[in-house]
Amino acid sequence: MKKVKISDVTLREDAKSGFLSFKEKVSLAKKLDRLGVDIIETAKISNAKTDVLFLHTIAPLLTKSIISCPVDLNEKSIEQATEALKCTKNFRLKLSAPVSSVQMEYLCGKKPDAMIELIGELTKKCAKSCDDVEFSALDATRSEPEFLYSAIKTAIASGAKTVTVCDSAGEMLPSEYEAFIADLYKNIPELSGLTLAAECSDKLDMGCACLVSGVGAGISEIKVSAEGKDQTSLLSVARIFKARGDFFGAYTDLNYTELEHIVSGLGFFKAQDIIDGKAFDAEKGESLVLSAKDDINTVALAVKRLGYDLSEEDIKNVYSEFEKVARKKQVTERELEVIVASAALQTAPTYKLKSYTLNSGNLINASCVMTLLKENEELQEMTVGDGPVDAAFQCIEKIVGRKFELDDFQIQSITEGKEAAGVTVIKLRSNGKLYSGKGISTDIVESSINAYINALNKICFEEAE
């Protein structure tokens, strides 16, 4: 019996639609780790603040799973990912490159020789920063065989320990995929002793069958998604291994006892399709994009769709701020969140931040000592958390004497450069109602604390009435 590693790509795929909140992504990572997934593949680092903070948040929470961070085909992306994960015990850098003629020309504008050279250079760069390097051959099943062999050999010679071959089109039959994997082992002796992984699109509902056939031919790692959709379903693959793994001589470390419960508990996946770039349509559930042509009623409907129950006066304030932004550009869902946090339910603060001190490192748990002012009375507490932001939020809750449900957590840059200022939007839920707060600072933790206190003050004001 051979072990087959399970690599989940849900967080990577979510980056294309972006409908999971910060809290939901953290929850997903924790559940996948609890389920026994070997590798959790995240999205590429596109937002230097939010994405790095997410990696720093989940790293200490994972007890079994390895974090795999994809990188772009350039050195800057590799350096950025390495820096973000340098305090993590186990992590993987994943370099993906198109290997079919169509994708090489369409995605990269590279000729075959130039692509081979680039794969070698960047794989070496990854290997200098990380012991666990994966090379993923995109659209491998439609590439020229000799070129694919050359690309894989180059990646292995440059330090890749895992090689993934992708059936990106999802058009292969199981017998074809099994023969494809067998040919790789026959023509690339260097694969012996390394991990050969497979990723199959499920567009024709044959992803699971192809992966199982691939395992029979020598595959020892498979890519799945908890969400399913066009990716091969984690639940379907797990059921096959549980029921027939002994038949084809393979097993996984998945916790089958909790499998159905955990996957069914991932209820934050939305049933509706997310359609990027189209106008807002509440009935169709499309993504939110508003313009200067939209009236106050449309904006009010959009705000309600985001989960807020605002007064008529607050709606007017939000619409006034919306108009200022909409004169210059279209307003997205995240930007509307910032407007709501800035303009709705403005109150005299019950709590004010006086000071905070944080201690954090790769060998210690983060701790926070914070002092808040309430009617000139100093209130101080000390807490320990999974990270600096978690420790700070726990400190606020300990001072206030209440816990709140963190519904969402967003960070956006509003200036450029190393000292860039960022705006943090926090959404808290109290007694079923949603409250948002905004904080601005060049320091992520400070802007997060200010946003949390801003939302807290709105809760205190409204619940005191």
What does this structure look like?
Helix 4 runs parallel beside helix 6, helix 6 runs parallel beside helix 7 (145-157) and helix 10 runs antiparallel to helix 11. With 465 residues, the protein is an alpha/beta fold. The model is unreliable at 270-286 and 415-420 (pLDDT under 50). The protein is elongated. The longest helix is centred in the C-terminal third of the chain and has 21 residues, at 444-464. Strand 8, helix 9 (207-217) and strand 9 (221-224) form a beta-alpha-beta unit. It has an 8-stranded parallel barrel with strand order 2-3-4-5-6-7-8-9, surrounded by 7 helices. The protein has a 3-stranded antiparallel sheet with strand order 13-14-15. The protein has a 3-stranded antiparallel sheet with strand order 16-17-18. The chain has 3 domains: 2-264, TIM Barrel, CATH 3.20.20; 289-343; 352-464, Alpha-isopropylmalate synthase LeuA, regulatory domain (Double Stranded RNA Binding Domain), CATH 3.30.160.270. It contains 16 helices and 18 strands. 42% of the residues lie in helices and 22% in strands. It has helices spanning 10-17, 22-35, 50-58, 75-85, 101-108, 112-129, 145-157, 174-187, 207-217, 234-244, 256-264, 296-305, 312-326, 333-343, 388-400, 444-464; strands spanning 2-3, 5-8, 39-41, 66-71, 91-98, 133-138, 162-167, 195-200, 221-224, 250-251, 289-290, 331-332, 352-359, 366-374, 377-385, 405-413, 422-430, 433-441.
